Amino acid sequence: MKLVIAAYLLATSVGIAKAQTCVQGLWNIEVTGTCDYDTILAAYEQQVFNPTGASSCAEGTATAKQEFDSLLTNLNQSIDILCKDLYDQAERSEFYEAAAKGTDYNFEQAFYNGHSKWQEEVETTYESADGSATSVLREDAASVKAFYQGDGSYSRVNTMPPIENFEQCDSNAVMCCWPKDRQANDNNGNCARNTYSE
């Protein structure tokens, strides 16, 4: 998940001024990956303290680490609390938005049972009068990639309500195994031809 940390989450602009930091005013940093001290410090240094092509602090006055530590200390803020607050305040998306097949989770149930159109249909040119491909997974499931690149990366995704497949699942993890090559000419699986119809 990508997190955006704004200066106002750490404190008000008055608090920032009281901290007497070299970097003044409001700022945002984007953090991808684990929310921890090293990750946030690296993002602060690269995106706020010393961004490419910008002049910020006079040379030798302070390092990004000193500046960041001073900010946290003066504001009585810890990274653990900051990360918890960020996750708690993050926008949320529903799991069903990925497939975009309705809000009742019937499609997801069928999918995890291995019986959705995404698993059972294969690309073919026999179904169209002009010979164009139908049942193209890249097109049929395009909403999943769009979700991943959008809300799925920038928000917390709520888990599905319990479906029968996972009632006894203690690991809280899902792995999908595809038993057949569903899409032609994608350089994987057992079909490297342009279409299954050949």
How much helix is in the residues? 25-40%
Strand content: 5-15%
Number of strands: 4
Q: Could you state the oligomeric state of the chains shown?
A: single chain
- Which strand order do you get reading across the main beta sheet? 1-2
> Could you give the order of the helices and strands?
EHHEHHHEHHHHHE
Largest sheet: 2 strands, antiparallel
| Global morphology | elongated
Structural class: mainly alpha
Which stretches of 5+ consecutive residues score pLDDT under 50? Answer: 11-20
Cα separation of the termini? 42 Å
Relevant terms:
mainly alpha, two-stranded antiparallel sheet, 198 residues, elongated, two-stranded parallel ribbon
List the helices and strands and how they pair.
Blueprint: E1 2-6, H1 7-10, H2 13-18, E2 28-32, H3 37-49, H4 64-74, H5 79-89, E3 92-94, H6 106-113, H7 117-120, H8 137-140, H9 142-149, H10 151-154, E4 156-158
Parallel strand pairs: 3-4
Antiparallel strand pairs: 1-2
Helix pairs in contact: 3-4
